């Protein structure tokens, strides 16, 4: 009877296996992601070996092992991106994935090898690496493009860039060397110049009429003097 109970217990342990806890860890691509794992260390004799693997924890060891430690130092390392940065002698065997990538997503097994049959501490972690968020906005350049009307003989298109500061009417220059802002602006400037050129002759010689008046008076005075002599 006792042997039957022992046999059932052994079969139950073999088929059921040790209890495995699970945890979900979410990280961001490009950042360091730490997958936690700890075991209790009472004294130096409690320090033991452990491994990390890429898959669920099997009955023994680790599937697709990526890093091993004997409890004092790292003995095997699949890649420098997998590191144990915790205090190993205090039972901190958390896995740090340096510069995580989306391909690092998956199941990770932390297996701490404890003395005795089926005493290993097992923990499966589901790691999810999301895409990196864009935190900086790139500068935008805005341009203003104008196109001439159909049938126009002017340039087909041109780009206007205005950086002139605002000035008062008294400070505005009489002539402008900058390009016109548009077809209507060029026509308006041309009309103003034509009006100014037409009105200039009348304002440049205002004394011409004065000379004509003086000459006419002198001629009349000379005619009167001649008439007096003749009479």
Could you walk me through the main structural features you see in this protein, from its secondary elements to its overall organization?
- 26% of the residues lie in helices and 24% in strands.
- The protein has 231 residues and is α+β, with helices and mostly antiparallel strands.
- The longest helix is centred in the C-terminal third of the chain and has 23 residues, at 208-230.
- It has a domain at 20-130: Immunoglobulin-like (Sandwich).
- Strands 1-9-8-3-4-5 form a six-stranded mixed beta sheet, with no helix packed on it.
- It starts with a helix and ends with a helix.
Question: Order of helices and strands, N to C?
Answer: HEEEEEEEEEEEHH
Radius of gyration: 49 Å
- Please state the average pLDDT score: 74
Number of helices: 3
Q: State the low-pLDDT regions, or none.
A: 4-18, 137-150, 152-164, 166-178, 196-204
What is the name of the CATH class of the domain at 20-130?
Mainly Beta
Structural class: alpha+beta
**How far apart, in Å, are the first and last alpha carbons?**
182 Å
What would the principal axes of the Cα set say about the shape? rod-shaped
> Could you tell me the number of beta strands?
11
Side-by-side strand order of the widest sheet: 1-9-8-3-4-5
Indicate the multimeric state: single chain
The CATH topology label of the domain at 20-130 is Immunoglobulin-like
The percent of residues in helical segments reads 25-40%
Named CATH architecture of the domain at 20-130: Sandwich
What's the CATH H-level homologous superfamily of the domain at 20-130?
Immunoglobulins
Q: Beta-strand level of the residues, as a percent range?
A: 15-25%
- Main sheet makeup: 6 strands, mixed
């Amino acid at each position: 009877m006792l042997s039957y109970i022992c046999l059932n217990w052994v079969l139950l342990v073999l088929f059921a296996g040790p209890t495995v806890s699970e945890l979900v860890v979410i990280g961001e691509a490009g950042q360091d992601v730490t997958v936690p794992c700890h075991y209790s260390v009472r004294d130096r004799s409690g320090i033991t070996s452990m491994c990390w693997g890429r898959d669920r924890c099997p009955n023994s060891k680790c599937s697709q092992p990526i890093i091993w430690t004997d409890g004092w130092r790292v003995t095997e390392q699949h890649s420098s991106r997998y590191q144990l940065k915790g205090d190993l002698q205090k039972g901190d065997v958390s896995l740090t994935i340096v510069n995580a990538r989306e391909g690092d997503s998956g199941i990770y097994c932390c297996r701490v090898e404890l003395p005795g049959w089926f005493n290993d501490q097992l923990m499966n972690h589901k790691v999810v690496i999301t895409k990196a968020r864009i935190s900086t906005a790139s500068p935008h350049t805005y341009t203003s493009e104008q196109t001439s009307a159909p049938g126009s003989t002017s340039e087909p298109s041109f780009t206007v860039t205005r950086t002139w500061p605002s000035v008062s009417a008294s400070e505005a220059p009489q002539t402008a060397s900058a390009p016109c802002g548009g077809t209507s602006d060029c026509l308006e400037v041309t009309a103003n110049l034509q009006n100014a050129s037409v009105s200039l002759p009348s304002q440049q010689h205002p004394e011409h009429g004065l000379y004509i008046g003086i000459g006419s008076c002198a001629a009349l005075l000379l005619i009167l003097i001649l008439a007096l002599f003749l009479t």
